[in-house]
Amino acid sequence: VMALPYLMECPYECTEQTFNRLYANALARHIANSDPKIRRVFDQWKGTPALDSPLEKNQDLKAVMLEETPWLRQAQNESQARKNVGLLFDDNRLANELDRALAKLREAQLGDGRWPWFPGGPGNDYITLYIVTGFGRLRHLGVDVDVSLAVRALQRLDIWMDEHYRRILTRSDPDKYVPGPTDALYLYGRSFFLKDRPVGRNQQEAVNFFLKQARKHWLQTASRQTQGHLALALKRFNAVPAFAVANDPTPMDILRSLKERSVTHEELGMFWRDTELSWWWYRAPIETQALMIEAFDEVAGDREAVEELRVWLLKQKQTQDWKTTKATADAVYALLLRGRDLLASDKLVEVTVGGKLVTPSTAPAPGAPARPAGDRTEVRAPDRPVPAIEPGTGFYEVRFIGPEVKPALGEITVRKVDEGVSWGSVHWQYLEDMTKVTPYEGTPLKLTKSLYTRVNTPRGPELRPVKGPLAVGDELVVRIELRVDRDMEYVHLKDQRGSGTEPVNVLSRYKYQDGLAYYESTRDTASHFFIDYLPKGTYVFEYATRVQHRGTYQTGMASIQCMYAPEFNSHSQSFTLTVQ
Questions:
Q1: Average pLDDT over residues 322-347
Q2: What is the pLDDT of residue 509?
């Protein structure tokens, strides 16, 4: 619910963004009003930390304060965007916004039904197809929206594809033509309006050609999104006599192939390893996953796959935000309007600590002053009432300090009593001798720290592993290898520096290496690396220090944490340096 997008303004007045504004607002309003629980939960969130950005929450669990990172403005913007969700419940205001967007689209539409990219420009068939498909999806979801503008554009789109078909016929072997992403999008978009305006008799030959080629060559198409579009389109066109193929197995064949190529992970759900960020619209990962949910639901009726696909979408939101307003609207639709109702149950996860059941209470402890719902108040023992539960999310927090911490508290049992997806974390914070710290690999983030000295040789400088005592003046190179198994955003990597060393590079700056952009900041006791976006993979960071003082001391450990989800963290070991 907190991800529902409300678009106050569009940075540009192009028709595509004007429609995206209408699409996201209309879909979000429909979802917000589809279940009274959503409105009730949002009303309870007002004035509580529930609407804060994840970057602003749990500051005490993070290795660096938000104000010390480059992401303060992003956190403030995200918090404001979450608060703007309340505008989705202002029916008059939102209706005016939607009417204004619809009026702009009506004014920009040309006489032949097409839309230009920018008002006043030439008609653009792809932009028109994009907008028509969006209108079709909105109505298919049950959104109350006027589709007359889309219906008006259908004849021009049919002619456009017929012209495309005629050009294909001039090739030496048109029978080998493989439908492209735009062909698949046309068939998918057109399938929403087969009753409003049937395909004209003059264009039926072209449409049948693309359907025939889709049945023959779908396995050679460019992307999973294209295959998902074809599966849905073929199923819908098969219901129209002019295009039907009796007992057509292709839609189910596509879904079976997609499922065979997928990966199902106990934590991450169902996904595909070829998921990637790309500049091609038909490879957009969030929109593609949302389409997979639609295809597996409508074509295959595979409830189990739908639930596993939704898990992957949720896990993406745990460690990052969904990139665009359209991606967010598609993802929210897929989560709330397909498969099991995620809002149907309000049962909490049962947590047992040290053999005692932690029972959340919506009332304060006896004799304690009343607290607003969602107040996250410290509780110091498992047998005392815990603070009120955060509505909607089921969030509550329990802390044990000082003498209350006993070995028995290390025994924690978590049990989910109903269906659905939940996640949480246990944080154990304490002081320990640096020499006793061992590497931690219990999360998707894994760090390995190693030390080298840079030695000048006749062949040039060489890096040699540190195996014995160092000397004052030696150049010490710290190498940190990071492995991560999923995409994350707002990641902070901190490497402590030995007290007898000084950094060679003292200037803070943005750097770009191995496809990764980050901000490197050198401070008195550590080097910090702030990574806006961390794709899954393996990365190596290096920086140099100079040995300044004799003695024996620790290098300190490297630690990493996702600021968006602080439960994802890890650290390396520390090394002993001997300088003679």
A1: 70
A2: 86
